[in-house]
Amino acid sequence: MERIKILLIEDNPGDARLITEMLAEDKNVSFDLEWKDTLSKGLERLVEGGIDVILLDLSLPDSRGFDTVVRTQNKAPLVPIVVMTGLDDQTLAITAVKRGAQDYLIKGQVDSNHLSRSIRYALARRIGDDRHITIKELSEFDGKKGKPAYIAFNRIVYDITNSRLWKDGVHGGKHFAGNDLTDSIKNAPHDEKVLIKSRIIGHLSSEKSFGHKLILKIEQLHLHPMIVHFPIANVINISILSLIYVLTGVISFEKASYYLLILGLFSSLFAGLSGMFSWKVTYEGRTTKLFMRKIIFTVIFTVIITLCVIWRTFDPEVLSMNGPNYIFLTLLFSLVPVVTILGHDGGKIVYV
């Protein structure tokens, strides 16, 4: 039976007991669990070595948030981390994975099967990749003539090159590397747990159609990051020019502001469409809080700037020196914080 040494860093005794009980339910894998209730104790234990997987709470007495992940990873860079937290925040989940965690589990929403699978996959991914491999590409890794030996199971590609169960890409005389063995493994006396310490290379994917390849090529042009700067710059200039007109009465400033307002409307439509395109293609339409907030503020921005264009078009004197309409002016200036929020959220999506 496969044995996995787990270090649980968790300050809640109740949660630690529950995790211990859930791991004990898996009769096919032996989980050897050590529990530490502070990060400092956990880091001291990591120095001793021998740990296969770390279960890490993000809210500890001596460390909170992503700094906990960073400190743990610095101490044991080759040991996979599965983050466990009570915060039901998908944005936090994505960021934790980007910062080095292999997986993210929400306390109270995890059963024993989910926990066991997450630990086993984290172990397999510890030096793995997230490539998308086609059946044709997979067939090239058959273990012959010194080549690596890969197999696929449930659309996950594993490296079984160094497995003692495989010799020259063959197992039992009837299983051959370079193939999708999902059905074979499911019908065998054993199950996927025989792959528990095999490195995950990536995921099996279908051959991309011409249309899909074209969409990916378009996305690689990074249209949204380029286009989105136009409405941001226009809004700032609109506000400055409108304010100068109110203060000086020079009509050319008001006209320039109006033309930029129209340009801002059209550029915001293109920016919104390109943003939706990137959201669907690159981020697979994830409905996290950060993405949803960005969509909501995009709608708010579009509504406000459309109202401003219509209002100014039908009332050219709305910023008249005889008495500017302060409701219109407020709407106009409100565009600045809205685009600031959009720019900030966009930066978090890309860089966090």
Written description of the protein model:
The protein is of the alpha/beta class. It contains 13 helices and 13 strands. Helix content is 52%, strand content 16%. Strands 2-1-3-6-7 form a five-stranded parallel β-sheet, with helices on both faces. Strands 8-13-10-9 form a four-stranded mixed β-sheet. The model has no long low-confidence stretch (mean pLDDT 84).
Please outline the helices and strands.
Blueprint: E1 2-9, H1 13-24, E2 29-36, H2 39-48, E3 53-57, E4 59-60, E5 63-64, H3 66-75, E6 81-85, H4 90-98, E7 103-106, H5 112-125, E8 131-133, H6 135-139, E9 150-153, E10 156-159, E11 170-171, E12 175-176, H7 182-187, E13 199-204, H8 210-219, H9 223-227, H10 229-248, H11 251-281, H12 289-314, H13 326-351
Can you give me a brief rundown of this structure?
The protein contains 13 helices and 13 strands. By secondary structure, it is an alpha/beta fold.
- Side-by-side strand order of the widest sheet: 2-1-3-6-7
Beginning-to-end CA distance, first to last residue: 40 Å
Q: Enumerate the spans where pLDDT stays under 50 for 5 or more consecutive residues.
A: none
Say what oligomer this is.
single chain
The number of E-state strands comes to 13
- Biggest sheet architecture: 5 strands, parallel
Order of SSEs, N→C? EHEHEEEHEHEHEHEEEEHEHHHHHH
SS content category: alpha/beta
Q: Report mean pLDDT, rounded to a whole number.
A: 84
Integer count of domains: 3
